[in-house]
Structure formats: structure tokens, C-alpha cells
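Note to self: keep these together.
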Amino acid sequence: MSTVPRRSDPTRAAILTAARDRFAADGYERATIRAIAADAGIDPAMVMRYYGNKEKLFAAAATFDLRLPDLADIPETGYGAALVRHFLHRWESDGTFVALLRAAVTNEAARDRMGDIFAGQLGPLIAATCPSPAEAPARAGLIASQMLGLALSRYVLRLPPITAMPPDEVEHWIGPTVQRYLTDRRHG
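Structure:
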């Protein structure tokens, strides 16, 4: 059974591409439906027809694959550093994730989307690597707190001591903490 593309598919795709670019460039608050529609070469009413409002458009556009590394080829003692290095690379190569983080600070839909991304993508990786799969959600939450705190400080708030640090130095400082969250065996 073949699936025939709907006539609206190219329009929806153009809107989502324009929205991702606009949200990455301007952030959630400053991006407008009019600007997104202009970037897509369509009338703003079409954006509203397909997505209803800016919040729903953002939730649809904010698909983000963390592209987490396969830790199977990394020695267990290097997991934390590998994750920090990976996240730094993702944030520096894709402005969409930083835009989502900016929006998540003040927007409930963006906050929920960020939570879904981390729970859905980071959670399974942690469950496969930590000593106790029952602890995986707590450990994933702690790792997310480190990674999101780092991203907020480095890419949103742009705190000078953090932005001035080269990536390998950030990895040196944060990697051991993430490593502990991944592999530490609880005592007691």
C-alpha cells in the first residue's frame, strides 16, 4: 500500500524549516509568526491554519535529536567526558537546541518538550550504562541538570568564566561529575 503525499506536506515542511531557523536565530520570544511565514514564502494565515499558534508551532518545530554517542566503544571510565564533549559539540553546532533551552526557561510547552527530549533520549542510554537500572531516572535527571546548567551558563546567560573556557577544560571540570552520576555504586 503506497502513501500518497498530501498537497500540504511541502507547505508544512517549509513552515517547520523556517520556524526552526527563526527560533534558533531569534529565540522563542522574539520570533514571530509573520517572520516565519515570510521566511517560508507563505501567508501568516497558513501558519495559523496548520499549527494554531506560536506555542504549538514551536512544539512541532522543536524536534531535536541529541545524537547521543554509542558508549560501547568507550572505556567505562570515559563515559562522563564523552557525554560532556558530545553535548558541547551539539550545542555549538545546532542553534535549535539553544533556542529550545532559552524558551524552556519561560514557556511551558518548550519546558515540556525539553523534558521529553532528555527523558526519551538520555534515559535509555543511562539505563544501559548505570549499575542499577532502577536508579536510571534519577541519574538521568542529575546528568540533565549538569548539562542544562552548563548550557544555560555558557550559551544563554553567557557567563564570562564559562564562555571563556575551552571545551577541553569544560570537559575536564564537568566530566568527572557526569561520570559519577553514570557509574558510581551507592554505598549503604
